[in-house]
Amino acid sequence: MTSTLQSEFWRGEFGNAYVDRNAASPEQMQARLVLWAEILSHTISAPPASILEVGANLGVNLRALRQLSSARRFALEPNELAREILVKDGVVVADDVRDGLAQKIEFPDAVAEFSFTSGVLIHIHPDHLEASLREIYRCSSRWIACVEYFSDKPEMIPYRGHDDRLFKRDFGGLWLDTFPDLRIVAYGFAWKRVTGLDNLTWWLFEKC
Ligand SMILES: C[S@@+](CC[C@H](N)C(=O)[O-])C[C@H]1O[C@@H](n2cnc3c(N)ncnc32)[C@H](O)[C@@H]1O
To answer: 129 CA distance to ligand 1 centroid (A)?
Structure first.
């Protein structure tokens, strides 16, 4: 199993404490429902019958998607506690949850019609980003989305007192530069003041 400074952080005590903090509160769920209703509205030409979240944690996105779509849900998540909650709460059935990292995903090619990350690419060291994008791409047959923090130049931001745990950049640009056959379908910004979400930028791509 691949291991990095960043993945050990998420598998260990920090990751467990994050799971405890990251409650699927009514406010959080409402905000995620609005976000995903918007993103999914752009897939109306071919609504996905299956969705993979890479780095799902306890599933605030997949819980919202469960309400908006009957798609089969898959999850990849390195933190064991989070995986247990995903299964215990019926967000994803046990067979459709995998341990692992984006840089090496133990799901077959095109396991889902839609694959995405939310707040995960920002935690992957730049040296492992391209491998991660290639795996996320491989796992989707059609749609790819990412919901991340944006910066127009790559930068490392101290994260809860730690260096080398949070990296911002133009992730949408990186997706397009890495895969010339991706078409940008839609993008947007979840402004904190209005949405309650953390100033997240999202992009939706389709394989052509
Ligand atoms: C900030 S949380 C975001 C959780 C969830 N996607 C959300 O939007 O609420 C980051 C998640 O990514 C997971 N993670 C960290 N590094 C990862 C990697 N290299 N590949 C896949 N998941 C990773 C962490 O365990 C954690 O659950």
So the answer is: 14
Return phi, psi of residue 30, to 5°: -60, -45
Domains and their CATH numbers in the chain: 5-207 (3.40.50.150)
Could you identify the atom of ligand 1 that is nearest to the CA of residue 7?
16
Ligand 1 binding site (Cβ under 6 Å of any ligand atom)? 6-7, 10, 15, 54-57, 60-61, 76-79, 82, 101-102, 118-120, 123-124
Closest Cα to atom 11 of ligand 1: 55
Distance 167 CA to ligand 1 centre (A): 13
pTM above 0.90, yes or no: yes
Query: How do residues 78-116 score in pLDDT, each as one tens digit?
Result: 999 999 999 999 999 999 999 999 999 999 999 999 999
Q: Reduced to 3 states, what is the DSSP secondary structure of residue 118?
A: strand
- C-alpha 184/C-alpha 113 separation (Å) is 16
Reduce the DSSP state of residue 143 to 3 states and report it: strand
